[in-house]
Amino acid sequence: MTDVVLDPAAWKDVEAGTEALLDQWLVREGDVVRAGQPLARVVLVKATLDVVAPVDGRVAAILVEASQTFPAGQPLARLEPAG
Fold first, then answer.
1. What's the confidence (pLDDT) of residue 82?
2. 18-65: per-residue pLDDT in tens?
3. Among 79, 58, 77, 56, residue whose Cα is nearest residue 66
4. Are 68 and 22 a contacting pair, CB within 8 Å?
5. Which end of the chain is more exposed for a tag (fewer CB within 10 A), N or C?
6. Where are the alpha helices (H) located in 17-72, listed in sequence order?
7. Do 38 and 26 meet the contact criterion of CB atoms below 8 Å apart?
């Protein structure tokens, strides 16, 4: 399993304790995805960012629902190898 997280670089210069908002999922559990494919959109300090798949795989679980907030490093979903 591979955890999907918002790129740590997105949190650079963001005040500690700030949370991002998961605005929209672009995939569903069970979908097969490719590395680099946008999976979700999040809002962090007035900026909208894409969360992309780190590897090829299948969306095994969505851990943070749309409209929920999450801290830096929080896994948003889990991918398992496709096949």
1. 77
2. 999 999 999 999 999 999 999 999 999 989 999 999 999 999 999 999
3. 77
4. yes
5. C
6. none
7. yes
Retrieve residue 69's tokens.
């907030």
DSSP category for residue 14 = P
Q: Which residues pair with 80 in a beta bridge?
A: 58
Maximal CA-CA distance, the chain: 41
In whole angstroms, what separates CA 60 from the centre of its chain?
A: 13
Place of tokens 């500690």: 16
Show the tokens assigned to 21: 């908002």
Please tell me the pTM assigned to this model.
0.91
Beta-carbon-side half-sphere exposure of residue 22 (alpha carbons within 13 Å):
24
